[in-house]
């Protein structure tokens, strides 16, 4: 089940909300855990066993760490076991086939691993559970003695499938005791509609052009230079509005149930550098790797440039691997390692940047991100290289063709809207008008219109799967 489905919007969510508000507060957490497991089991009931196993194991690991306060050795043993078990489950389900294929190609063996299906969102809930155990070990949070409450933290359906990766300390108090006010619910509905519209009206529309462009790989007569660029740009907007739309829906749903989740996006395409882009894109993942990998290794405050480069290499190799079992994702992560290494060692220490230089570097950042998304979207490294060559006219393709004319004509208005909504312009304007002229009712009507428009598009069969469900 996905948020952007008629079943979720008109059946699952209303029923869950209604019963939740009718139940006494002490029963609400148990209800939300039950429906979260049901939500996860929808259409893939086998996966819920992995989820329940994760809850039980991490509950036990944290309890054992808490019980061994007087013994550093035992605490470290239970922490190490928690890390090995969590990452082992993740490796088996997500990376074993990929690792086996590498061994086969190196040693010429024919090991075949079959029937390993990827549990949806396993990278998200594994990291979330692991962060809780590590924080208990560090003494940053109190251990949760109620296994059902911890289960709700790990399995809560709004952020279960594609984040944000919530840190336990940010919602520990809300799990125990939270206030569900009409104003919070109202803001949650608004935020959900905003994400719903981003996904259905923008991301799905851009996916049509992007899918067509990437399906033309190997067809120079169809993939012109301009069409290749258009396809890459459309995919850049597709993945932005797909993922940020999901995050907005998750944040909105959390508010409806009395939870405040962290922001996961902050207009990443207005970034002036690659470093800034990653402070604005998938914020919760960046913070996870910063707090649990980068800083413990020394971060940027190291005496040796070699150690700094090593730290960056490890983080971005892991970032690429986290996204998927594919050489494309690994090279995508290592590409950012290279860019960020250059920035930290050469570009950012400079203080003599002029206005023109800063503008050029902003353009370079957008270009680097755009080319990175080609790696992200292509089916393999060969396809990615072919597509990039096509963007620069190196695959024997023409500059312009009929595909370009048709899709540019059909997408012109959409591209303008995407540029506006990928910046704070619309949001700031609406906030100003609402505060200055007190036209809240008119803006509410706009949200209702957006919702109805998105629903009508959904009814007509718009493309629907979320990109980050695969991670």
TrEMBL record:
Any one GO molecular function term: acyltransferase activity
Any Gene Ontology biological process: alginic acid biosynthetic process
Keyword Acyltransferase: yes
Superkingdom of source: Bacteria
UniProt KW keywords: Acyltransferase, Cell membrane, Membrane, Transferase, Transmembrane, Transmembrane helix
Membrane topology of the entry: Multi-pass membrane protein
Residues spanning the membrane: 6-23, 30-57, 77-95, 107-127, 147-168, 189-210, 222-241, 306-323, 329-347, 359-376, 407-430, 442-462
Signal peptide stretch: none
Subcellular location: Cell membrane
InterPro entries per UniProt: Ac/AlaTfrase_AlgI/DltB (IPR024194), AlgI (IPR028362), MB_O-acyltransferase (IPR051085), MBOAT_fam (IPR004299)
GO cellular component: plasma membrane
Similarity section: Belongs to the membrane-bound acyltransferase family.
Protein name (record): MBOAT family protein
């Amino acid at each position: 089940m996905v948020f952007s489905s008629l079943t979720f919007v008109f059946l699952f969510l209303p029923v869950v909300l209604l019963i939740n508000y009718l139940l006494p507060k002490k029963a609400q957490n148990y209800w939300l855990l039950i429906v979260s497991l049901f939500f996860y089991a929808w259409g893939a009931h086998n996966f819920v066993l992995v989820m329940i196993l994760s809850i039980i194991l991490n509950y036990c690991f944290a309890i054992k760490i808490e019980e061994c306060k007087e013994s550093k050795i035992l605490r470290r043993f239970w922490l190490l076991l928690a890390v090995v078990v969590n990452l082992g489950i993740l490796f088996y389900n997500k990376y074993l086939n990929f690792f086996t294929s590498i061994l086969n190609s190196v040693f010429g063996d024919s090991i075949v691993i079959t029937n390993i299906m990827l549990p949806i969102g396993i990278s998200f809930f594994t990291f979330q559970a692991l962060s809780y155990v590590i924080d208990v070990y560090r003494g940053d949070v109190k251990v949760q003695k109620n296994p059902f409450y911890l289960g709700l933290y790990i399995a809560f359906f709004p952020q279960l499938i594609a984040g944000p990766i919530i840190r336990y300390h940010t919602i520990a108090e809300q799990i125990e005791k939270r206030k569900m006010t009409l104003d919070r619910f109202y803001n949650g509905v608004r935020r959900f509609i905003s994400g719903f519209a981003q996904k259905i009206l923008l991301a799905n529309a851009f996916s049509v052009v992007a899918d067509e462009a990437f399906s033309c790989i190997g067809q120079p007569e169809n993939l012109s230079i301009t069409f290749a660029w258009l396809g890459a740009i459309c995919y850049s907007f597709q993945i932005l509005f797909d993922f940020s739309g999901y995050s907005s829906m998750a944040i909105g749903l959390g508010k409806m149930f009395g939870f405040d989740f962290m922001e996961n996006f902050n207009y990443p395409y207005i970034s002036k550098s690659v470093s800034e882009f990653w402070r604005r894109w998938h914020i919760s993942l960046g913070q996870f790797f910063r707090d649990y990998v980068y800083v413990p290794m020394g971060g940027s405050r190291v005496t040796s440039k070699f150690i700094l480069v090593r730290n960056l290499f490890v983080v971005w190799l892991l970032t690429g691997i986290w996204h998927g079992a594919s050489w494309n994702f690994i090279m995508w992560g290592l590409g950012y390692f290279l860019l960020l290494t250059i920035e930290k060692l050469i570009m950012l220490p400079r203080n003599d940047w002029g206005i023109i230089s800063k503008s050029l570097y902003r353009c370079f950042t957008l270009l680097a991100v755009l080319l990175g998304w080609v790696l992200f979207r292509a089916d393999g490294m060969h396809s990615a290289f072919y597509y990039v060559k096509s963007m620069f006219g190196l695959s024997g393709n023409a500059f312009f063709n009929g595909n370009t004319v048709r899709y540019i004509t059909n997408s012109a208005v959409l591209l303008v809207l995407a540029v506006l909504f990928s910046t704070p312009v619309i949001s700031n304007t609406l906030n100003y008008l609402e505060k200055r002229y007190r036209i809240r009712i008119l803006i509410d009507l706009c949200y209702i219109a957006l919702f109805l428009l998105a629903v009508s598009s959904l009814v007509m069969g718009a493309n629907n799967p979320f990109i980050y469900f695969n991670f």
